[in-house]
Amino acid sequence: MSAKKLGIIGGGGHIGLIHAACLASLGYKVAAYDLDDRKIKNLQKALVPFYEPGLEELVKKGLEEERLRFTGNPEELSDAELVFICVGTPALPDGSADLRQVERAVEELARLAQGPVIAAIKSTVPVGTNRKLSQQLGKLGLSHKLTVIANPEFLAEGSGIDDFLKPSRIVVGGEDPQAMEKVVAVQSPSAAPVI
């Protein structure tokens, strides 16, 4: 995929930051959005909020090459063609996943999108979430602007960069084969099996 620009929602967190830095290292222009202003200001100075081998170097390189940008302004994602959703889905008291952050991210992205956009959900979500999100967008009259694709991550702390750049597998799901192909193409620098 020759995406002009990629976006990350939750770009200051562990999963989002690794994705942003690795995608920038592969040559993509990446806008990493996060709600935490302090985190964004630090990341703009290449101050990474946690230790992950090789991450600080990738962030510095991405910033220096102007391929990686950190922002607290969601409108900077409005022209992205593909946005990875990397927000928290904490457990509710009954053990189910709290999907409110994912739902808000998808809705906000659809409202801001200047053109068609693919939302690849990296967050841990239950089966059926794509359909639920698509229905939610339909009720809001926004389903024509956004295609939701499931794309769970398999990054382990301490090996996140290698896990991204040399994945053992790429899992993708959705109802739009072309959108799924684009999500895989962006993340497949190696010949990882696609599931």
Task: Characterise the protein shown here.
With 195 residues, the chain is an alpha/beta fold. It has one domain: NAD(P)-binding Rossmann-like Domain (Rossmann fold, 3-Layer(aba) Sandwich). The chain has helices at residues 14-25, 37-44, 55-64, 100-112, 129-139, 160-165, 177-187; strands at 6-9, 30-33, 68-71, 82-85, 117-121, 146-150. It has a six-stranded parallel β-sheet with strand order 3-2-1-4-5-6, sandwiched between helices. Strand 5 (117-121), helix 5 (129-139) and strand 6 form a beta-alpha-beta unit. The model has no long low-confidence stretch (mean pLDDT 92).
CATH architecture: 3-Layer(aba) Sandwich
Fold-level CATH name? Rossmann fold
Count the DSSP helices: 7
* DSSP, total strands: 6
Given this structure, which CATH class is correct?
A: Alpha Beta
Q: Which bin fits the share of residues in helices?
A: 25-40%
The overall number of domains is 1
Instruction: Give the distance, in angstroms, between the N- and C-terminal Cα atoms.
Output: 19 Å
The biggest beta sheet is recorded as: 6 strands, parallel
Task: Please identify the structural class as seen in this structure.
Answer: alpha/beta
Oligomer: single chain
Low-confidence stretches: none
List the helices and strands in order. Answer: EHEHHEEHEHEHH
User: Which homologous superfamily in CATH is the superfamily?
Assistant: NAD(P)-binding Rossmann-like Domain
Principal-axes geometry comes out as: globular
> Order of strands across the widest beta sheet?
3-2-1-4-5-6
The gyration radius over C-alpha positions equals: 16 Å
pLDDT averaged over residues: 92
Percentage of residues in DSSP E strands:
5-15%
